[in-house]
Amino acid sequence: MPRVVIVSNRVADLRKKSQTGGLAVALADAMRERGGIWFGWSGETKEEAAPAVAETIGRVAAVSLPLSRREVEEYYLGYANSVLWPLFHYRLDLVDHRPNFLDTYAAVNRRFATELVPYLEEDDLVWVQDYHLMPLAARLRELGCRNRIGFFLHIPFPPPDMLAATSNHREMVEWLLEFDLVGLQTSTDVGNLTRYLEEHMGLEEIGGAYRHGSRQVRVERFPIGIDPVGFAAMAREEPDDVAIDLMRRKLLGQRQIIGVDRLDYSKGLPERLRAYGRLLVQHPEYERVVSFLQIAPPTREDVDAYAEIRLELEALAGSINGRFAEFNWTPIRYIHRPVSREKLAPLLRASDVGFVTPLRDGMNLVAKEYVAAQDVEDPGVLVLSRFAGAAEELDAALLVNPYDVDEMSRRLHQALEMPLAERRRRHEELLEKVMRQNATAWLESFLEVLERPDGNQEAGTADQVAA
Ligand code: ADQ
């Protein structure tokens, strides 16, 4: 079985069990089993760029390099998170393109390719993760790399007309054409990319792949998943402070709605808080009974749009609490800090409603974690945005339009009043999907397609002969 070389913006700390990013959680589990190399940024910022260093942890070698201050500003915070992130989340209004962003993004990808090549063996499968590294296959090919290279995009792929609002859209898609396989989260994303290939580039699908020049690329859907069995086990283990809080709430007959997200404008947090506020206005009987716990740890705070959403959220939580709080009851508990997964899992289990309402999300693993964490005898209800990738599979949830505050408030009410039989029926259907499309299935199915022979091997040999 060939080795697997994962390349992502950040190399996760494989010794640490609690990870904050969805990507790290899904891959770390699978990599520990399979072995291979994980290559990427170490997370350190140095005055000057420095070379990569390797560290072996179990069967996985982590190879990481620090970035220079300028690279962090212009590649990571800049092009990746101020241009690509908003653009791919359908937020053209938040795209903040500045001089040097694209050049530094290209340069970091070139440097990643140069540093990675010495570690590669002939048969390695290279698997590149996410929007930070779209040009990587093109740069590796320039250095003579003939390995199978796959790409998985964790975030949505925007519709062709939206992509076309950036000046270098064609170049972006040409980067992707250098991979052997491009994996996306949903059929909507696959449709968006293949429409671009067909309508903007005149490419045609033949035998499941798009041919261009001497190469061909497959574009397929691989919805990412979690480790539902492990997460459910964690959810049943309550740390003391969580157990005490649960007991107190039970005693007082209190119920809880929960939200867990990185504090990101794509997650629809202000709309979510407003919907909860509306619920309290429309159903005064929920006062002192139904509270809302929102956990939203900080990310990317050096990007202006993130600082703004934080202020907006704090003001909103303050005003709703100011209006409804009692001396002994706080409607919204808003935590702007990371919470360990050991606490998160039982908190999800102990909540009557999982409120997951991103305006746009590649998948959203919290939705799947909420389902996995529930007590099957007495499960809570998932209220889920139609615009989360997860909605494509989890259609037994109560699906909502995350821009429609009234609808969300009505669905919260429906969730809180849902009879046990219906809760069980919906949960059973959801759990079946979460179990089936788990992290291992996602990883295995991607690698299986990446390994499948196609015309690119011959094209590689022909190039070699010509060279
Ligand atoms: P994210 O945008 O980070 O991921 P998500 O899929 O919800 O979003 O994953 C977040 C992960 O971090 C979850 O496992 C969650 O439990 C954890 N987490 C969140 N807040 C936490 C906290 N306070 N403390 C501890 N853990 C916390 C990106 C895309 C998603 C896609 C994933 C995976 O934006 O759409 O689903 O990658 O592909």
TrEMBL record:
Alphabetized Pfam families for the sequence: Glyco_transf_20 (PF00982)
Superkingdom assignment: Bacteria
Family stated for the protein in its record: Belongs to the glycosyltransferase 20 family.
Name the record gives this protein: Trehalose-6-phosphate synthase
